[in-house]
Amino acid sequence: MTLLTGETDVFSAAGPSERCVVMFLARREGDVSGIFGDAERQAIAGVLDELKSEGWLLSIRAMFDAESNGEAMALDTGFTHSIDMAGVFEAPSISAAMKGTIRLERAGWARLFSTEWLIGPREFAPVKGTGGDIDRPWGFLALWEWNDSWAAATPDQRTEYDAECDIAFKGDLALDINIAGRHRLDWAHGWHHLGAWEARSPQAIDRAITGHEDVADFVFTTSRHFMGRIRPLHELLAA
Fold first, then answer.
1. Tens digit of pLDDT for each residue in 134-179?
2. Considering only Cβ atoms within 10 Å of each terminal Cβ, which end of the chain, N or C, has fewer?
3. Which residue(s) pair with 27 in the sheet?
4. What is the tens place of the pLDDT at every residue in 186-195?
5. Stretch (H or E) spanning 63
6. What whole-number distance in Å separates Cα of residue 67 and Cα of residue 170?
């Protein structure tokens, strides 16, 4: 896959791979007591177990350490966003990603949630923060698209912009934030890219975004952000 933007000091190409992100933005439906219960929860859990055995990664954490790919995790976002839950999985291929979402919906997911699914291939490899193996219970998801100013910029201006943004990303890593590389969504969605982080606190995320503002990261992009505490998916299905 041709990179939409070049490699930097922080980010390197993922290399030949068919792996593909499956992002979900889910809003809980109204009264579903008559159509969603234990049977549907168990059916969804069964599909997740199957997907894991087929090579899916079911959490941001697993993108850094596949051996930690235990239960499925998602962001609890209802406290500050219009959606109740957000998250990212990674499938072995685009075909597997599309088929997997259908299996989850048919198992009962669609009875509980109205969901926006976003799917796209991995572009950059994950990068670990400087804090080592510490607890990072908060997640941050960033969708962005390159705007008209970026489209009109010269190659030299884009390269200079990437170097400035790299300063902010190095600051993210210094704040103990793990960055799950970058996935490319423009093959089928209005958004060009997805970035997924895990962080030790909301304050760390806020400081990181301030660093991006300081280097004018957003001069070339329009973005949409989500933050939430990372929780086991089965807890969010039972909420």
1. 999 999 999 999 999 999 999 999 999 999 999 999 999 999 999 9
2. C
3. 114
4. 988 999 999 9
5. helix 60-64
6. 26
CA dihedral angle for residue 13, residue 22, residue 60, residue 9, rounded to 10 degrees: 20
Residue 118: other Cβ atoms inside 10 A = 19
Is the Cβ–Cβ distance between 90 and 57 less than 8 Å?
A: yes
CA 161 from chain centre, in angstroms, equals 23
The whole-model pTM stands at 0.94
Interaxial angle between packed helices 38-53 and 94-104, expressed in degrees from 0 to 180 and rounded to the nearest 10: 160
Cα(137)–Cα(94) distance, rounded to whole angstroms? 28
Helix (H) or strand (E) holding 74: strand 73-76
* Cα–Cα dist 157/182, whole Å: 21
Backbone angles phi, psi at 122, to 5 degrees: -70, 135
The 10 Å CB-count burial string (b at 16+, else e) for 161-174 is bbeebeebbbbbbe
Angle between helices 155-174 and 202-214 (to 10 degrees): 150
For the purposes of burial, counting CB atoms within 10 Å of the CB of 48, is it exposed (0-12), middle (13-18) or buried (19 or more)?
buried
130 burial type by CB count under 10 A (0-12 exposed, 13-18 middle, 19+ buried): exposed
* Dist CA 61 CA 121 (whole Å): 18
CB 57 within 8 A of CB 181: no
